[in-house]
Write a sequence for this structure.
């Protein structure tokens, strides 16, 4: 029987703050996000992961960052943790993440962290591939291949590793750590960069893939589909057009210039809000019918929960399942490794409600049926 799993826990408490308020990220903008009404998400998402293996606590020796950097979530999950190290900073920083990770090196078998691509970069810079890592997704973009598909999937991966009689048989793979220049992103410029490879436990149905950018796929079919959707738009319905090239083709068909990386609001075939955040969407839709048009993230298959958090649970519920249109190229869908779509909205019940089979628009009068799955959550 293997020794208890020595698990490190690091939480970036400001991860994801910029999502619903439309800031495209949180790097250097935590205070601005809070001023716009953002609410912390990372600890709650960590707790969702920890609860999945809390009944196996006897098989885990937990080392956690102090306070909001892990200690609080562990305590809420009923887990006893050694605090490593005891930092006293009022505001956490990347330096704290790096210091904690370095203090854990040599003492843990695996580090479970909650954050986004920036947090993954910090861990890579601190420990390289000396210690395996696994991300509980809590950021805005999460294009790296080091994250579980959902918080519950992260917990299920820890539970599976803990249950192994011979842990040496666990398979690990090098996974990309990617990040985007957030300042450039807010100006509409996508500049992804590969920072290196981290060692990650490999359980394919529970682990998300790295994002893949797709260019020139089925251009004609998507343009024709967008023109068809635009022609059928009803003047008195508010349309929330999500980020990405596929969805923005509808704006092009309407002769509107929108925010490629944000959500635009269209009413009466005219732009009423560009790059809208959650609050703007909910305020604008008051008294109206809302419909959402959204694309699919290449390589990952996410419809909601990656880079479009302004389409929040409240916004999605306002539209309802029948008010959502998914558009993507057929090649992009066929290229998905697991041939599935994913959602990770932050609301487990909504994720379960969205699960199941969907028609994805791939061309004019042409759909492809795909299944939305919620790894770690029952249908």
């Amino acid at each position: 029987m293997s020794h208890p799993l020595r698990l490190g826990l690091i939480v970036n408490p400001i991860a994801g703050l910029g999502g619903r308020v439309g800031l495209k990220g949180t790097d250097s903008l935590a205070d601005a996000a809070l001023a716009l009404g953002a609410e912390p998400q990372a600890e709650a998402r960590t707790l969702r992961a920890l609860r999945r293996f809390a009944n196996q606590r006897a098989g885990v020796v937990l080392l956690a960052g102090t306070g909001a950097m892990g200690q609080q979530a562990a305590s809420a999950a009923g887990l006893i943790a050694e605090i490593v190290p005891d930092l006293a900073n009022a505001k956490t920083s990347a330096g704290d993440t790096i210091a904690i990770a370095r203090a854990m090196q040599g003492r843990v078998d695996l580090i479970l962290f909650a954050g986004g691509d920036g947090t993954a970069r910090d861990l890579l810079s601190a420990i390289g591939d000396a210690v395996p890592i696994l991300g509980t997704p809590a950021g805005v973009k999460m294009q790296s291949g080091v994250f579980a598909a959902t918080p519950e999937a992260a917990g299920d991966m820890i539970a599976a590793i803990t249950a192994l009689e011979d842990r040496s048989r666990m398979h690990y793979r090098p996974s990309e750590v990617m990040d985007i220049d957030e300042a450039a992103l807010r100006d509409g410029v996508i500049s992804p960069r590969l920072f290196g490879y981290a060692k990650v436990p490999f359980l394919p149905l529970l682990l998300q893939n790295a994002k893949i950018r797709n260019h020139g796929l089925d251009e004609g079919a998507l343009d024709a589909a967008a023109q068809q959707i635009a022609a059928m738009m009803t003047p008195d319905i508010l349309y929330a057009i999500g980020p990405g090239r596929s969805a923005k083709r509808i704006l092009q068909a309407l002769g509107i210039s929108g925010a490629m990386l944000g959500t635009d609001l269209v009413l009466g075939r005219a732009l009423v809000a560009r790059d809208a955040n959650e609050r703007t969407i909910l305020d604008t839709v008051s008294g109206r019918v809302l419909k959402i048009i959204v694309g699919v993230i290449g390589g990952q298959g996410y419809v909601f929960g990656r880079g479009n958090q302004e389409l929040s649970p409240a916004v999605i519920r306002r539209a309802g399942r029948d008010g959502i249109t998914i558009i993507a190229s057929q090649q992009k869908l066929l290229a998905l490794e697991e041939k599935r779509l994913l959602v990770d909205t932050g609301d487990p019940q909504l994720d379960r409600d969205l699960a199941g089979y969907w028609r994805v628009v791939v061309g004019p009068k042409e759909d492809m049926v795909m299944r939305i799955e919620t790894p770690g959550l029952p249908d």
